[in-house]
Amino acid sequence: MCSDLRTILVYSSVLAATACGSASQSAETEQTVPRSSRNELVAADIMATNAGSVYDAIQRLRPRRLRGRTAIGGEAVLPVLYADGVRGGDFSFLQSIGIEEVEHVRFINASDATTRWGTGHAGGAIEVIRKKGG
After folding, report:
1. What span, in angstroms and rounded, lies between the C-alpha atoms of 127 and 83?
2. Were 68 and a residue from 11, 37, 78, 100 both cysteine, which residue would form a disulfide, CB within 3.0 to 4.6 Å?
3. Average of pLDDT values for 17-27?
């Protein structure tokens, strides 16, 4: 009986050590390998599209983000565009930004965009953050 308990404790210790090692390795991987999320695209994923512009990359990776949302009355409300915090124009603004310039792209919902930049963001916002020194 005592040896069975000892065996269980040994196996438990090995499993716990393995799980801790996997968790720290997973945390390391997450910190060193940036990944895009639902609300953000990172440079590695943008560059992997081989698109000609940030607009084309978004079109390939998150096309619904370019369609805006339907407002009351059935009219589409498009997102407001920003680059490094400066308001841009229409979608041709995104077509003028090369993918090699981009650090990441954020998709900001209407409420958060209104809080950050003020009214007029019923369709949310798309914010492009460019690489520094580029």
Report:
1. 6
2. 78
3. 45
List pLDDT tens digits, range 36-79. 889 999 999 999 999 999 999 999 999 999 987 887 788 889 99
The first and second tokens of residue 46, run together, are 């943008």
Task: Scan for tokens 């065996």, then name that residue.
Answer: 7
Prediction pTM value: 0.71
Q: How far apart are alpha carbons 64 and 61 in whole angstroms?
A: 9
- Cβ pair 65, 125 in contact under 8 A: no
SS3 state at 126? strand
Strands 80-83, 125-130: pairing kind: parallel
What separation in angstroms does the CA of 114 have from each of 80, 125, 131? Answer: 10, 9, 25
Where residue 98 falls (left for φ over 0; alpha for ψ -120 to 50; beta otherwise) is: beta
d(CA 34, CA 25) in angstroms, rounded, equals: 15
Q: What is the CA radius of gyration of the chain?
A: 23
**DSSP secondary structure letters along 49-98:** TT-SSHHHHHHHH-GGGGT-EE-TTS-EEPPEEEETTEE--SHHHHHTS-
